[in-house]
Amino acid sequence: MLRVIIADDHPIVRIGQRVVIETGGRCKVVGEADGPDELLALLSVEVCDVLVTDFAMPGGRQPDGYGLLSLLHRQYPSLPVVLVTMFANVSTLREAFAQGAQAIVAKSAAAKELPQAIKAVAKGQTFISECLRVQMGVAGTVGLSKPAQLSSKEREVVRLLASGMTVTQISVQLNRTVSTISKQKSTAMQRLCIGTDVDLFAYARNCGLVP
After folding, report:
1. N vs C: which end of the chain shows fewer Cβ within 10 Å?
2. One domain for residues 114 and 22
3. 101 and 168 share one domain
4. Which of these three, 112, 139, 166, is where a domain ends?
């Protein structure tokens, strides 16, 4: 029987995950955590075969998002990680795989996908929700382990946008034309397969470009 630890800051989500995971009798939830701090403390004392964790769990002293994935990969390199997330942009998916996730399940996915993901990673395989595979196929993404690369100027523009500055303010600060800043923003979003400013700001936060 596979021993599973689940981490999510919403108790109702954890209850639902426990029911789905334990249905069928092949897996047993041996621990739950409501954030990065509690998760790392739990992993230090509880042995498990698979970790199922949310991507964004606010609060605590430990890193979240990509930082948490990277830390888990360094401290527990042999522990398969199933990432459950509501973030659906391609850049987030690619970077999550690059930081050590072995499966990504959309929170909107059918209940059957979580047990499928756990089974896959336990065998050393990768898994991604059907709806996300379709999205990545539409985006023409190849090589999930290779995150999109922005130029230094594009990263700078994204960082300043996410910090609250407008395109006009950035053009003044960087001594570039408004059209140049707009073009660099557009190019960055195309590289990251991001379609909205909200997703762009989420990407900047998750990558540590802004606090």
Report:
1. C
2. yes
3. no
4. 139
**HSE of 93 in the Cβ direction (CA atoms, 13 Å)?**
26
Nearest C-alpha neighbor of 32 from the set 57, 55, 49, 53: 53
Q: Are residues 74 and 134 in the same domain?
A: yes
- pTM more than 0.90: no
Report the number of distinct structural domains present in the chain: 2
Q: Which domain holds residue 51?
A: 2-139
Q: Same domain, yes or no, for 119 and 182?
A: no
d(CA 163, CA 40): 30
Tokens of 115: 């047990």
pLDDT digits (tens, 9 = 90+) for 11-66: 999 999 999 999 989 999 999 999 999 999 999 999 999 999 998 787 667 667 88
Q: What is the pLDDT of residues 54-105, one digit of tens each?
A: 987 876 676 678 888 889 999 999 999 999 987 666 777 778 888 889 999 9
Who's near 84: CB < 8 A, 6+ residues apart? 8, 17, 52, 53, 54, 55, 104, 105, 106, 107, 114
